[in-house]
Amino acid sequence: MSLERGLELFNAGRYWDAHEAWEEAWMPDRRGPDGGFYKGLIQVAAGCLHYGRRNRRGTVNKWRSGANYLRPYLPTHHGLDLAALVAATDANLAAVEGSAEWPDLEMPTLART
Predict the structure, then answer these.
(1) I need a surface site. Which of 3, 8, 36, 110 has the fewest CB within 10 A?
(2) Which pLDDT does position 30 carry in this prediction?
(3) Are 102 and 54 in contact (CB under 8 A)?
(4) What is the per-residue pLDDT across 9-66, written as a single tens digit (0 to 9) for each?
(5) Cis ω for the linkage preceding 33 (within 30 of 0)
């Protein structure tokens, strides 16, 4: 299952691979009820990838849009703790936006509920 595989990859810090796994799950449902859910996961993962590359604009854009796509699915969806993921993403986003220097951040993880 692509959702589970993406979860494992994301938590292992393999953000590009997580993005790809979740995109595979998203494509058949991109206009369905879970379209925003998958798009949010994909974009949060992309933001983490941009963070690792020290790309401020990409980090900010993807974390902001990813968290916003996930908000309608809070607090949990498909057994995932989205509230914690969105809170961690929002905190990291604020740190990146609020610092002239590149902040040393802990990347979010995604837990099962």
Answers:
(1) 8
(2) 84
(3) yes
(4) 999 999 999 999 999 989 888 889 999 999 999 999 999 999 999 999 999 999 999 9
(5) no
Instruction: Write down the residue that tokens 């990409």 correspond to.
Output: 58
- Bridge partners of 76, per DSSP, are 81
Alpha helices in the chain (DSSP H): 2-11, 15-26, 35-52, 56-70, 82-97
Q: Of 19, 113, 35, which Cα lies nearest the Cα of 75?
A: 113
φ/ψ of 80, rounded to 5, equals: -110, 140
Q: Rounded distance, CA 8 to CA 12, Å?
A: 6
- The Cα–Cα gap between 28 and 33 comes to 11
Q: What is the pLDDT of residue 28?
A: 86
Contact 48, 15 (CB under 8 A): yes
Phi, psi of 33 (to 5 degrees): -65, -20
CB neighbourhood size of 94 (10 A): 12
The whole-model pTM stands at 0.96
